[in-house]
Design a protein that fits this description.
Elements: H1 3-31, H2 37-62
Organism: Lysobacter cavernae
Protein name: Twin transmembrane helix small protein
Pfam families: DUF2909 (PF11137)
Length: 71
């Protein structure tokens, strides 16, 4: 997989995560607790965050990416 494609995939995940965070804030302010849209948006954000972490760990395990070691 191309390095720029990997970077774009991670950035796309982060953008969608931030979008759902913003949607949760918007729904919280607009709905005033009358619907479950806030909970749904924040649940999607958590699920995407966990998926991104698992994807990065899997990519490291498969050798697609390499973590940079510290000193």
């Amino acid at each position: 997989m191309n390095d720029s494609l990997k970077t774009l995939l991670v950035i796309a995940f982060l953008i969608v995560i931030l979008w759902n965070l913003g949607a949760g804030l918007y729904y919280m302010l607009v709905d005033k607790g009358e619907s479950k849209r806030t909970v749904n948006a924040l649940t999607r954000r958590i699920a995407l965050s966990v998926a991104l972490i698992l994807l990065v760990v899997l990519a490291n395990y498969m050798g697609w990416i390499k973590f940079h070691g510290g000193p």
